[in-house]
Amino acid sequence: MSTEKVWQSFKELVKLWRIDRIPSLAAALSFYTLFSLAPILLICIVLIGFFLGEASVQGRIIDYISDLAGTKVASQIQTMIENSQEVSKSKIPQIIGIFFLIFATTRVFAELQNGLNRIWGVMPKPGRGWFNTIRGRFLSFSMVLGIAFLLLVSIVLSFTLAAMSSLLVKMFGGSVYSFIILEYIISFLIITLLFAMLFKVLPDVILDWKDIWIGAFITAILFTLGKFIVSYYINHSNRVSMFGAASSLIVILIWFYFSSQILFIGVEINKLLVLKKGKIIKPKETALLVDSNRPNMKNIS
């Protein structure tokens, strides 16, 4: 691809970013994520804890978050998880507590689905309110289970590599850093798979996997590179500390907002690639196209 075509695609992507009001979508998703992340992680810890132990899983998840967003964000999220655990141990009836956790974990995915549908120019069919709500909640909770499974795979692979690295170095030579690099590669591939799952399952449009992988891969690259920028900004910016007692909340919101922007930009990349191939956006049976936001190349060229 020539430099001119790359530049043209970049300008089209920026125009899509502006037309679809990605900053507003990212802000809304960040707000819901703030209240949903701790319950999501708590459910993942409980599910994976059956196999590996809750304390071990929680420590590993916090390490992941520390690598992604820095120690400040990881510390605040650890506090949120611990507070959620205390609430789950309170005298609140168990059924009500479980219902609240499920509602909290699925709300952020419902908001994410709304954002993805807006980008693709589709909406749920009217007159099926309860059906769409139940279907959306079930789909959202399925995503939570999918994330828990990916975390389980990642943790098992990390433990396996850590246990085998010293032995394999003695047997075949080389450096232990090779296994550290391998662990980072596996982590990157899991992040790519997670983005691909979100892009494929959540929006109410029919998409081929081959139209998703490029966007998921680019999104994972942007997410991986951008985390260093956000982490540096959070750890060195004086603007964060000026909020005083609320600075911890601001730190988490900054990370959520950045991550949401990257995720929606990845969807825009997928949308741009699909439109450039001349494909027609086809909604699922439960959705329909919105004329005012119907995606086509004339809107962005």
From TrEMBL:
The protein's name: Ribonuclease BN
NCBIfam families the record matches: yihY_not_rbn (TIGR00765)
Pfam hit, one: Virul_fac_BrkB
UniProt feature coiled coil, ranges: none
Transmembrane parts of this sequence: 25-52, 138-164, 176-199, 211-234, 240-267
CC annotations in GO: plasma membrane
Keyword list, A-Z: Cell membrane, Membrane, Transmembrane, Transmembrane helix
